[in-house]
Design a protein that fits this description.
Helix content: 40-55%
Number of helices: 12
Order of helices and strands: HHHEEHEHEHEEHEEEHEHEHEHH
CATH class of the largest domain: Alpha Beta
Oligomer: single chain
Structural class: alpha/beta
Shape: elongated
Length: 332
């Protein structure tokens, strides 16, 4: 004969409160401990378990004098309840945690983003787990207020920007770089005049300043002028409008590029790029560099301040690591 305690609709779920009380009692194997966890009385937990057993039509516990054991049905229900409640708790925690997180938008150049910023961002995430950073890598300067950006790292002639705090991150220094394979397989490259036998990888970009657009002077033209070789004609020239693509071409061995220190210091340390000319007019200071731009509306926010201070600290460490070491003088 059918069990008269079984419900008419087998698929109907009992109230969630009863299932949560049962899960706590089954996990602790104690009505008293479950009551403390649920902030109710022991008698309330007992009533919930009885109501759940009546609703299901089966006993869930074997009640001893001072012991509590699950029945076979109780074990099956406990497994399902534990999994379902754990998933619910995880989903709720994720939703609540996401609402407490702060997302910052930072715009910068593709070259700085790929070569300098992105390799360092995991350190910021570990130090500030409640702050997410969204990177916009774009050559065209953004209107920070209109486009909703909290910070910007701009590549420009060093100096302030009206209406915003623009502390410098670092200046740049230029030097010819190429892959080790090019040095092994290509023509000799021991002095600046040897560049005439090589392909030069150049950067040609469009810039916009005060509403006026124009072409950025080619980097090699400026460097060769300072090296005393303004009329040097290379074997060929490959031009890119993205610095990260130019460096990728240099790493692949397609020619000699002008590396921007400290952006390429990681590639130099890894020996994916080499500086073949050494002191032969090799490294020249640039008039340009990178500045940190903070709109006044965003600068007062603690999360923005945290990211700005971290960027400045990383820049100081980068500058210190890139500083040339003085040779020790031997004592007579």
């Amino acid at each position: 004969m059918p069990n008269p305690r079984r419900p008419a609709d087998p698929g109907r779920l009992p109230p969630l409160e009863l299932l949560a009380g049962f899960e706590a009692a089954a996990r602790r194997l104690s009505f008293t401990l479950a009551a403390e966890e649920r902030f109710v009385t022991q008698s309330a937990i007992s009533r919930q378990i009885r109501q759940l057993e009546d609703a299901l039509g089966v006993p869930l516990f074997v009640r001893g004098h001072r012991s509590l054991q699950l029945t076979a049905d109780g074990q099956r229900l406990f497994k399902s309840c534990a999994e379902a409640l754990a998933q619910l708790r995880g989903t709720v925690a994720h939703i609540r945690g996401r609402e407490r997180r702060e997302v910052l938008s930072l715009t910068t150049t593709p070259g700085l983003a790929s070569l300098w910023l992105i390799p360092r961002l995991p350190r910021f995430a570990r130090q500030h787990p409640g702050i997410d950073v969204r990177i916009d890598a774009e050559l065209k300067p953004r209107d920070l207020q209109r486009d909703g950006f909290d910070l910007a790292i701009r590549y420009q002639a060093l100096g302030g920007i009206a209406g915003a705090a623009a502390p410098p991150l670092f200046a740049e220094r230029l030097l010819p770089v190429c892959s080790p394979r090019l040095l092994r397989q290509g023509p000799p490259l021991r002095r600046a005049a040897d560049l005439a036998r090589h392909t030069l990888i150049d950067l040609s970009t469009r810039y916009q300043n005060d509403g006026m657009a124009g072409d950025m002077p080619t980097e090699w033209q400026t460097w060769l002028q300072s090296a005393g070789l303004p009329d040097l004609e290379p074997a060929s020239v490959i031009s890119f409008n993205s610095y990260s693509e130019a460096m990728a071409a240099a790493v692949a061995g397609h020619g000699v590029a002008l590396g921007r220190r400290p952006l390429i210091d990681g590639l130099l340390r890894q020996r994916r790029l080499l500086a073949p000319l050494g002191g032969d007019g090799g490294e020249n200071a640039s008039e340009r560099g990178y500045v940190l731009l903070l709109p006044a509306a965003a600068a007062a926010r603690p999360a923005v301040q945290a990211l700005a201070q971290w960027l400045l600290a990383e820049a100081r460490g980068t500058t210190a690591a890139a500083a040339p070491r003085r040779k020790r003088q031997s004592t007579p």
